[in-house]
Design goal:
heterodimer, A: 177 residues, mainly alpha, three-stranded antiparallel sheet, 8 helices, 3 strands, 67% helix, disordered C terminus, B: 261 residues, alpha/beta, six-stranded mixed sheet, 10 strands, 36% helix
Chain lengths: 177, 261
């Protein structure tokens, strides 16, 4: 998603200035999405240009400007909320490109690369588990749920590596060379 | 005495102080007639006292065979298995049975409780085989595992999660040197499985050495800091995982599109 709808959603409740938007946005996501204040101001300026938010009153102390949602912004937010998340699957799979390239370079000997990647995923699962435990203990249920999603994704990544291992990924390529 | 002290008292009575290596497999090979899967091919590994180790691998990889070797339920075709300094290869059938009774607690996927005995009676079986009257300890274990109320129930009247807890109590009643668990959550729903694993984690924190076979990497890494991967009868990885406290953003990043337009 883009920051745009996050900002619109936060302004739905009450007018906020840039720093409040940043803090609430980061808190909502349990510190898993850090935004710099520059991004927030740029986003607010573009939303104002497009008529989706508008400033409330004059600049306050230290130049703070409060923004509120416009009726058009409200409409854009409602539409976005009602839409399912669709479109192509987003993969950030560096590892697959590495494997494909390593197949050509290393004559199909990818066991080490696969084993190292699996170990990295196991460590990630461990870290996620510990974060989930901490989040639950601290009553941060939203963060715990997000971690749960990440655990399931990482489990899938690990299963994928297992499949590639058991298929002896890369050996077909070596024969074809 | 609170539950924590209770488990610790259990462990200390059975522990051999000063010995950190508890299990050693040396070049263990298991060949099954007729090419049945699950064979082992030259496996060497050791497990230290107090470790919670997960063994992972696809079905037929040999992970359950490995566990059965450690339990003395199966003998290797070649190679050696030692637990707590005892060479299992030197024990006859009666000796192996005694070894299992005195040193091994085993939790299975399908519980294997005796249907015509109550929960309490099931828990007491291993103690009775040893000639111990342990009713008080059995009751305390049931309470510790959160199932005191099913003490007089028969397995058919219990949920899967309750049955598995009874099975864990039975595995712990003789204060085993080693607790082995073969897919203990495999027959349970996600939530119940997590609760059962949480109990195993608690037992481990109180000092119990645990070897767990599972295919669930999420659950394995929740409690085990060591993950051994088995494939085609061989150990292909032996990962000791780190457990630092990391900031949320060092563990997860929610990614947004760049601000544009």
């Amino acid at each position: 998603m883009s920051l745009k709808f996050g900002v619109l959603g936060l302004l739905k409740g009450e007018p906020l200035h840039g720093y409040e938007v940043k803090n609430r946005f980061e808190a909502m996501l349990g510190g898993t999405w850090e935004v710099n204040i520059g991004q927030i101001y740029t986003t607010l300026q573009r939303l104002e240009r497009d008529g989706l938010v508008r400033p409330v009153g004059p600049r306050g102390d230290r130049g703070k400007l409060l923004y509120e949602l416009s009726p058009e912004g409200q409409q854009a937010l409602d539409q976005w909320l009602a839409q399912p998340d669709s479109g192509p699957q987003q993969l950030h799979e560096d590892i697959y490109v590495k494997l494909l390239l390593a197949t050509r370079i290393a004559n199909g000997d990818l066991d080490q690369l696969l084993a190292r990647q699996k170990r990295a995923y196991l460590q990630r699962l461990r870290d996620l588990n510990r974060l989930e435990e901490r989040a639950r203990r601290d009553g941060r249920i939203d963060l715990a749920r997000l971690v749960r999603g990440a655990l399931l994704h990482t489990e899938a990544d690990l299963k994928w590596m297992d499949e590639l291992s058991s298929e002896h990924f890369g050996t077909e390529g070596a024969k074809a060379e | 005495m609170d539950g924590r002290t209770f488990f610790r008292a259990f462990r200390d009575r059975g522990g051999k102080s000063g010995v950190s290596e508890l299990v050693r497999l040396t070049d263990v090979t298991k060949v099954y007639q007729g090419g049945i899967t699950g064979a082992l091919n030259g496996v060497s590994v050791s497990v230290e006292k107090g470790e919670f180790t997960a063994i992972m691998g696809p079905s037929g990889s040999g992970k359950s065979t490995l566990l059965n070797m450690v339990a003395g339920l199966d003998r290797p075709t070649s190679g050696g298995v030692a637990v707590g300094g005892t060479d299992l290869g030197k024990l006859g059938e009666a000796g192996l049975a005694r070894f299992r009774r005195d040193h091994i607690g085993f939790v299975f996927q399908f519980f294997y409780l005796l249907p015509n005995l109550t929960a309490l009676e099931n828990v007491l079986i291993p103690a009775q085989l040893k000639g111990n009257a342990a009713t008080g300890r059995a009751r305390a274990l049931l309470e510790r595992l959160g199932i005191k109320d099913v003490e007089d129930k028969y397995p058919a009247r219990m949920s899967g999660g309750q049955q598995q807890r009874v099975a864990i109590a039975r595995a712990l009643i003789n204060n085993p040197t080693l607790l082995l668990a073969d897919e203990p959550t495999g027959a349970l729903d996600t939530h119940t499985g997590e609760q059962v694993m949480e109990l195993l984690g608690q037992v481990h924190r109180d000092g119990q050495t645990i070897l767990l076979v599972t295919h669930d990497a999420k659950l394995a890494t929740r409690h085990a800091a060591r993950v051994i991967s088995v494939m085609d009868g061989k150990i292909v990885d032996d990962a000791r995982l780190e457990s630092p406290e990391r900031a949320p953003s060092d563990v997860i990043r929610v990614r947004g599109e760049e601000v544009s337009r």
